[in-house]
């Protein structure tokens, strides 16, 4: 996990360093990229399912997470 975090942080930092101009041209907000730092939050599968169910998403224990599920889990909440 630490290696994966290091890779993501490194790639994001390099994109900001080498391609900020292009991101500005295409009018991308870089604030979220600038905030990428480790350690990343950890969430057990059980807690993720409970969180998604509490948000009203149709997930049952044992199911796979799709894009909407992952997006919902990555949104900051005051409960975490």
Fold topology:
Blueprint: H1 2-25, H2 31-34, H3 45-54, H4 67-74
Order of helices and strands: HHHH
Global mean pLDDT: 89
Structural class: mainly alpha
CA-based shape: elongated
Largest sheet: none
Radius of gyration: 16 Å
What low-confidence regions span 5 or more consecutive residues with pLDDT below 50? Answer: none
The end-to-end span amounts to: 20 Å
Question: What percent strand?
Answer: under 5%
Helix content estimate: 55-70%
Number of helical elements: 4
Total beta-strand segments = 0
Description:
By secondary structure, the chain is mostly helical. The protein is built from 4 helices and no strands. It is elongated, with a radius of gyration of 16 Å. The mean pLDDT is 89.
List descriptors.
mainly alpha; 57% helix
TL;DR?
This protein has helices spanning 2-25, 31-34, 45-54, 67-74. It has 80 residues and is mostly helical.
